[in-house]
Amino acid sequence: MKRLSLPLDEEIRTSLHAGEPVLLNGEIYTARDAAHKKLHELIQKNKPLPFDLKDCYIYYVGPTPAKPGQVIGSAGPTTSGRMDSYVPELAQYGMQGMIGKGRRNDSVKETIKKNHMVYFVAGGGAGALLSRSIIKREPVAFEELLAEAVTKITVKDFPCFVGIDAEGNDIYDLD
Amino acid sequence: MKEIQVKKISDALRKACGEIAVDYAPDIVAALKKCAQQETGERSIEAMNMLLQNAKIAHQDRIPICQDTGMAIVWLRVGQDVHFVGGSLQQSIQKGIADGYTGNYLRASIVDDPLYGRKNTKTNTPAVIHMEIVEGDRVSLELMAKGFGSENKSAVKMLTPADGEQGVIDFVLETVKKAGPNACPPFIIGVGIGGSFDSVTELSKYALMRSFTESNPDVRYAALEQKLLDEINALHIGPMGFHGNTTALKVQIEEAPTHIAGMPVAVNMCCHACRHWKGEIE
Predict the structure, then answer these.
(1) Is residue B40 domain-resident?
(2) Most buried of B116, B143, B169, B201, CB within 10 angstroms?
(3) Could you check whether the bond before residue A159 is cis, i.e. omega within 30 degrees of 0?
């Protein structure tokens, strides 16, 4: 299985094919509905962002709280489609990839193609399993959002599939 | 008159919240194992293996099966000869849920205002409570922890009598197709038929509470459950949406009397993490 180290060079991004299983390694930001809304508002108001979007990867996840001694609780992907409307804007600021589950709309697909980005699909409903690949977590912003706060996680061999590749092919449309 | 301490309600709910978050009901594990055997595609086999491995890890490590530990839905059937003592019944239900979620490291997923505020209440309360007074001196308590990836894909439609069985089938299939990969297949699908616009949705949710070992007691509805399951699985959305033979594990129908002019139908989509618990409080 292909082992990828984030962020990815353009050459590697364009070599990925929808449907292929990969193992992600490196740093990823967590953000879902409420955090995306806040990022959008900051951009609209021309205010500084809490983290650099350039070459970043965002995992759509709202984990359960970590028990003492754990890095993170259950941490599977949430439905990506709810974040679709924010993608073109975040891509302008250099976001390189996303991790989630479920279909994306045509605008997201076009954005991925245009900017040679990548959308990874992780196992929906496999939060206990996926939590084992998250080895570090630190707070970044919007702590008041609790599970929806932006955090930076470090992943080691985090299993997922290429969901939409840089050519716009979609895992959910494969035979 | 029988006196029941409300603390018993909180205690039972607190415990149940912790248990259903980490352990699938045995009937779901059995269904997942059976369906895993029926997959032939590389990705659909991998998806089923991930779910089974996830179930094992969740059980061993006492970590939730899914990070969306759900909105708590509580059904309470109270015998009319019961007298609750020791405090507020409503508060004891909410306390049981709050303690169950915070004490077991489950996710607080409830916001106080749906449109404007959206501030997290930090306790996963309020729970939705359905209460009914029945005969006798017993209290039956049921809990569902409903995830919203699938809840968002649920739907209700006011069919008319002329739409008949085919109308029901078409609407259920349309709803499942729209849910697609987003609602975390393989699904368990609750279908309510009859009642009114409001009651049919609760009916569809309550249908999800039934054990897999039971079909609808009416053979006509039991046959429709099987027919729907076959047609849904023929859609080949598959585990995690990666195509394959398992799109749903079970379809469960609950029906109720309705108006001469109508035939409401509700479809409550549920992912494989169909978490529910039932108990008697004495």
Answers:
(1) no
(2) B143
(3) no
A74/chain B closest Cα distance in angstroms? 5
Chain A contact for B66 (CB, 8 A cutoff): yes
Domain extent listing, chain A: 26-161
Strand ranges (DSSP E) for chain B? 2-5, 71-79, 82-85, 128-134, 139-146, 155-159, 187-195, 248-258, 263-270, 275-281
Provide the domain count of chain B. 2
Per-residue pLDDT 10s for chain B (282 aa) are 899 999 999 999 999 999 999 999 999 999 999 999 999 999 999 999 999 999 999 999 999 999 999 999 999 999 999 999 999 999 999 999 999 999 999 999 999 999 999 999 999 999 999 999 999 999 999 999 999 999 999 999 999 999 999 999 999 999 999 999 999 999 999 999 999 999 999 999 999 999 988 999 999 999 999 999 999 999 999 999 999 999 999 999 999 999 999 999 999 999 999 999 999 998
Show the domain range for B136. 2-21+65-146
Full-model pTM: 0.96
Cα–Cα distances (Å) from A120 to A75, A158, B74, B110, in that order, read: 15, 11, 36, 28
Q: Is B106 a domain residue? A: yes
The CATH T-level fold of domain A26-161 is fumarase (3.20.130)
**Mutation choice for B interface testing from A74, A119, A161 by most B CBs within 10 A:** A74
Residue among B43, B182, B183 minimizing CB distance to A161: B43
Among B146, B176, B195, the domain boundary falls at: B146
Let me know: does A73 contact A61? Beta carbons within 8 Å.
no
Q: Is B180 on the interface with A (CB under 8 A)?
A: yes
Backbone CA torsion sign across B224, B229, B232, B235: negative
Query: Residue B87 maps to which CATH number?
Result: 3.30.360
Tell me: do B221 and B103 sit in the same domain: no
Same domain for B162 and B198, yes or no, is: yes
ipTM for the predicted complex? 0.95
In a domain, B82, yes or no: yes
Residue A101, strand partner residues: A79
- In terms of Cα–Cα distance, which of A168, A170, A159, A140 is closest to A4? A159
Domain shared by B105 and B16, yes or no: yes
